[in-house]
Amino acid sequence: MLAGVCGGLAEFFGISSFWFRLGMLIAFIPGGVPGILLYLLLWVMIPSE
């Protein structure tokens, strides 16, 4: 929703973006740092349309 990372991954893999968003939410739970770093890394790596 913020940068389209989960939506882009969902479109690439052909599954619902709900599962990627749920995975990101779980990654944010242990203090937030792993999830934030992963999200920022993917934001930079995934090309915008």
Q: What are the main properties of this structure?
A:
49 residues, mainly alpha
In short, what is this structure?
By secondary structure, the protein is an all-alpha fold.
Write the layout of secondary structure elements.
Elements lengths: L4 H9 L3 H12 L4 H13 L4
Helix pairs in contact: 1-2, 2-3
Describe this structure in words.
The chain has one domain. The model has no long low-confidence stretch (mean pLDDT 81). The protein is 69% helix and 0% strand. The protein has 49 residues and is mainly alpha-helical. Helix 1 crosses helix 2. The chain starts with a helix and ends with a helix. The longest helix is centred in the C-terminal third of the chain and has 13 residues.
User: What is the average of the pLDDT values?
Assistant: 81
Give the uncertain stretches in residue-range form.
none
Distance separating the two termini: 15 Å
Number of domains: 1
Number of helices: 3
Please state the overall shape, judged from the principal axes of the Cα atoms: flat
What does the largest sheet look like?
none
What is Rg? 10 Å
Structural class: mainly alpha
- One letter per element, helices H and strands E, the order comes to HHH
**Secondary structure: number of strands:** 0
Strand content: under 5%
Helical residue percent? 55-70%
